[in-house]
Write a structure and sequence with these properties.
148 residues; alpha+beta; 30% helix; globular
Amino acid sequence: MRETCEFGKHMDDMKSRGIVFEPIENAAGIKGRWSKLFASSLSKEEKQDIYYDQYRWHIFSFERVKCLSGEEARQAFDACQKQKVYQFFQHSRAGFCIENAHLLKAEDLDYGNLIPWSDTYLFDPEGKWTYVRTHESMCGPYFYEKNS
């Protein structure tokens, strides 16, 4: 229960800075869109080999899609152009459309153990880039930009 309260405070802090979170009750649509945008180069067999259904971010950790990771990923996310982004979580049906995303920084996504669905995926509506923050301290975060 303490984690839920701490996460609520974390969200309130971001909202007080002008970041707007519009809930998406069923994120299946944006999860599917993310897969089409960023994982379509992998075959069904390749996805099975890396346990993609368990964690989409395995496309990066298994190095099937070249990306930035760690501090380089955090810096790229902070520097990228973003007004509106979509956010979803690996093990949740919920998601958000985030407005004023230029105010969002990588450190805002360091949920740690505040929420049980801490694997979070963000991407811009045009599908130019994605930022993924995993629950694993030794994996990620990851930043992938198309045509980079």
